[in-house]
Amino acid sequence: MLGKYNTKAFISLGLTFLLMWISEATDTHMNYNYNYNYTTKPRVVLPPNYVKEMRPPSRKGSPVIVDFSIFVVDINSINVEDMDFRVDMFIHQRWMESRLEISDDIFEEGDDYVTLLPEFFDNLWQPDPYFLNSKIAEIATLTHKFTSVTLYKNKTVRYAARMHAIIACQMEFQLYPMDIQVCPIYIESFSSNNQKVKLRWSDSGVTLNPELKLLQYNLGQPLELEESDGYMPEKVGNFSRLTVYFRFERQIGHHLIQTFAPSSLVVMLSWFSFWLGLDAIPGRVTLLVTCMLTLVTMFTGLRADIPPVAYVKALDLWMAGCMVSVFAALAEFVVVKVLDVQYQYQVNRIPKVLPMRISNMEKGQCATVASWEGGAVRSRKATQTPTTPGQTSLQGNGGPPKPARRQSLLSVAWTDTDTGVEKIMWREIDKVSRAVFPILFFVFVLLYWPILLMKSS
Description:
Helix content is 33%, strand content 26%. By secondary structure, the chain is α+β, with helices and mostly antiparallel strands. Strands 1, 2, 3, 5, 6, 7 and 9 form a seven-stranded mixed β-sheet that branches. It has a four-stranded antiparallel β-sheet with strand order 4-8-11-10, with no helix packed on it. A two-stranded antiparallel ribbon has the order 12-13. The N and C termini lie far apart (112 Å).
């Protein structure tokens, strides 16, 4: 009995091992077929003698045509200090690969194209365009590279990729803050000259995202596209080149609110000093100095937004015009103060017993404080002054008055011949300044804006 049970146990154990071996062999065979299909699937349309290093055959002497298109998703980080901008985009390349062997069973019913695995692209000949003026250009990745390869029945290959690029742009700021920056993107074949590969824009060309908005700029449309052949001395040859020009027009609304309107109000505020008399010297000085310091602080902060260029910008001219206007108001105050001091000095030299105006004098001859010298009024009796033989000088009897010996070059006061009212020089200057300063600033504005708008257009 014991031997009988041992025989059955051995048979059972042998059958178990046999089933396990058969199962393992079957799995191995299936995995081998799976791996074999997976690894050979990308090469299902490639002939055995396909060489990816050779470009597709074409007519003798004609290059391979590569159609190129771009869909711009976003433009951001327009950096005026580093003079570059960042662009996120989809690029599409399309060319004819006549060496492929395509069978209809790889296409779904009703479709004339099939999307292949990314590994298939590594086994194909592919053009090598690059961004000539890019600082950084890379394919976007998250869990994998965002690329795709599409194969059409007519043996056309279409490659698409999502890319990030930082593009250098030589910016000019003469018209800042109404400057217009024209920033090109140059796309060029790296190793194949124009006799082997020809790049051209497709029908779609460069398309912008309709929801694209920039903070400080308006993007001029339509975009200018260009196809050319450029000689590259470092590669010794002519290479096909595509160019797209982005036109960034700076929005003036921000600077009108933050720059031009406040600075204009500060200049207008400085004109209030002309209505303050010299008895309010602290208030007048404080007002003008505060206006000057406000402008200096305002423009110092604005200049930090742009690189320190060596040429004069439009904003510099506006800044200079505003500061000169406020400085001129401060200089006007100094002038009228000096005239007032001279006026007070001459008033204090006249005896207090004498009136400011002598009624029996002829009008306009000696009716101002400036006519008094040494505290006395010269006699207007007819006197004979030895000059030349036969000549006499009459003063007061219809003849011309003899000028004072120490008459100042600038009269600080005079009498109006029509009204007989004494007018003081510094007060008249203040009255004239109330109209002259606004008129001059208005003329400056009328000249500044039309010229700036004309040049920016």
